[in-house]
Sequence to fold (509 residues):
Amino acid sequence: MDLKVETQLTPETFPQTDQHYIQLTGQVYVQLRQNWSTDYFFMQSLSTDESIMPARGGNWYDGARFEQHHKHSWDKDNGHVSSGWSWLSGTISKANQSLFLLKNAPESSAKVTAVAELRATRALAFFMMMDLWGNVPIVTSFGETTSPETKSRTEVFNFIEAELKEILPNLSIITGAPTYGRPNKYTAYALLAKMYLNAEVYTGTARYNEAAAMCDAIISATGTPYSLETDYKKMFFIDNGPQIKEFIFAIPYDPGFSNGYMFYARYSLPRSLQAKFSLKHTPSAPMSTLPEYYANFNDPNDKRNAQWIKGLQFNNNGTPVTVSTTKKGYDQYYTGSDGSASLTYQVDITPNVTLRDVSRPFDAGNDELAWNMGYRNNKFYCDSTSSNRNQNNDVPIFRYSDILLMKAEANLRGAIPTLGQTALSLVNQVRAVRTTSPAWTTVTLEDLYMERCRELAWECWHRNDMIRFGKFEGRWGFKTDAQTYHRLFPIPASALILNPKLKQNPGYN
Fold:
């Protein structure tokens, strides 16, 4: 019998529908989420005053890679530099592979949109590589056997700009659940705004009017697709998702999948608070912020202060969080003869990080005092529903508040005001839903920098901001390095071995 096959996926039947294209391109979005909360965060945040990860009794020293980020002493062998390069190169490669597989698919509106989304995701990966390394190869085809050459940062910038402009007409204007986790037209506008705001850093030519124009394309979009959320904390809870009106583009996470977003429960939460947050695992707790960064949170009425864990700790019922140990366990340098005597203390998260263990480099010690050093960030609220260290919190890459603050900065740096908005009115628009303090009457670039610190803490934009504001060569914590070539990371040794055509960035061997 000759029967028509209707349940088998064949080149004639797949891909055809929107869902088919989502399934076919899924590998690219899975790849994108892989190293966001590890290598990418470490390079973007630990290299700033925003966070620090000292060793604690030898724990988390990891061959000095975290110390190198803090002190700007990294080299081409740093593990995060190497795996970060591989991750983003892999994202570009998978996008190229998917585009190759789609090449001969039947023409349809679904195909046009899927191709545009893939190219936008690839452009985002190129942007992140350009931001971190500056001079990188431009690879847009799959299956090439020849090694690509390094392109200048300006060439990469121009390529990304051209890509985004070309695909803009083919990207969807639909927001919310139907396009969540995939780039739409507003994602492209946001990425272009970020590029133009940093254009002077990337290419030597300021383009603030273009930055403001891209922000306007989102702010004045028909139907007002995005708005500020009034509940700042809830925006980052474990049940966030497409209902968050402030998310322009976000990476969805699910604790049931490998390499989920494990950041806060693993790195940031003090281990003594496991029971308070009902976690099924013990947090590793090595990472905190620095007093220099926390100083930006100087408004007592600011709702964003609640993202920090600091000071004396209490359980949800109001009772003190206590830890039972010994006097020596509390302070390893205790010299009394009763060091083994029992001691119960209330957990107190202190602001300063001190390197106390002289027998080990970059080490705060392995006692209770050490493990409670440094205020901790709990912005992406710990996931007590997860059976492992992975979390359910989705992570935004572009948010509407960032768009408003970027336009405010562009205006302060010389962009022509549009839509009846000024830098002051834009910043006050954000602050109106973040603090109960009176509206500002003036705003400077320094004010705006501090506002970005408060608004975008631990969202992987602070290094980008510090470089643009001329603060990356400053001193904080134990860092004294002021070499400007550290604004770029070195091309990793592993990449140079695989591709001899790559050129190392200036300042590195």
In short: The first strand starts at residue 247 and ends at 251. The beta strands are 247-251, 308-309, 311-312, 322-326, 342-346, 348-349, 376-377, 395-399. The first helix runs from residue 18 to 33.
